[in-house]
């Protein structure tokens, strides 16, 4: 039997227990209704894993009762992930969205700052693709992509006072000249260059 098959069987064996049974076992031990050995035998969960989760809970840590498949597990707590998601969204709202590379660098820096155990690439100072796909699956409302160019003028001028001013001017013009709906057109600035990037040479 090859090493790959052996590793696959070991991982499968480690993760055959049921998360519902683990929660019940943890509850019984925490409430002093059973010993760890009794709970592990009754609910068919690994006693070592049960003890690890109970110890973590007693230390005030947030611990998942889901079985781990292989060597990959959640680095951050739910609270840390929530903060990370809000930060990424906040940057996007400020017209500074992160691309995938920048996001993975941010994740690495956060793990280092919090002194969390991880297996990220310390040489590249970046989290890996496994973390990325897992994180994005858990937070499907996020979207990381290459940001489009936005002129400084457009970013600065697009705010509530300026938008309100635009509609006030529009209302004044409509009332003054009695414009009907079919006489109002949207002017596209396709032919007007407003960005310094990729300027055309004439």
UniProtKB/TrEMBL annotation:
Subcellular location: Nucleus
GO cellular component: nucleus
Every HTH psq-type domain range: 20-53
Main location: nucleus
Residue ranges, annotated region (Disordered): 1-22
Gene Ontology MF annotations: DNA binding
Keywords, ordered alphabetically: DNA-binding
InterPro entries in the cross-refs: Homeodomain-like_sf, HTH_Psq
Record-given protein name: CENP-B N-terminal DNA-binding domain
Native source species: Popillia japonica
